[in-house]
Amino acid sequence: MAQRSAKICANNGITLPVSCRDAPHVPKDKKLEWEIRYMSTLAATQPAPKIEPADDFPVWQENHPSGTFSDWLKASVCDDWKRVTHHPFTDAWGDGALPGANLKNYLIQDHRFIDRFVALLAAAVSRAPTLKDRIPGCQFLALVTGAENTYFERSFDALGVSDADRENQPDWPATKAFKQLMTDATNSNSYTNMLAVLAVAEGTYLGWADRVNTAIAKRPDDFWYSEWLDLHIGAYFESVIAYLNDQLDQCGPGLSADDRAQCLDHFRRATSLEVAFFDTAWGPQE
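Above: the chain sequence. Below: its structure as tokens.
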């Protein structure tokens, strides 16, 4: 009897591709692609988790007296934070094992964040309380517009991604939404809203890159894998995350209840969109 190539989800009748573990007929060179299809479709059938309202910061701090404002923000999104930092896409990145289309499309989409990100970070620098508070942000701007942007251009050249490929691919929904969130934070004129989005964008990447770099037995040979890890680990990048969190810890506790709720909303939306972005990057690609 021929092997079945699909099965019915018991909960809702949705047809799923079979995991390659249950389909020995799948050729070896197709197993990763098949598993991506399976995991992506399976994830789409799961009900959205119920989000419980988090304790407001003053209440939370009473129960966590040594906790900081940035600790409270991360505690409020802990499930989604882990989904980002432990996403299967990131494990495949560390193994240097992404299908070509997933790799190229991820790079195209991620590069599109740089323009809005630079505007957001520059706006945050302009609203920092003192020169001392501005300098680390200025230094990080130089890295993003220098080494990070150059990494993308070198990767596109090495992988044969043409200008037409980059221009003709539409934004993923998560890409479009995150770009809009960065614009919203910039236009809010709120320093803490800006910091909230920046802290998620960079903090989640430190989380996954450091975890993957520590776990892998051998670093990927291809520079587009290894150098992307290098840009998001190490003492300097850790200092960037510490700077963003420290700014939140200085400014967050003094916010009004309404401004604090806005800051948390930006932090939550950013984290949720990071999950959605990786989900798309890990899904079937053409």
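The chain has two domains: 1-47, 55-282.
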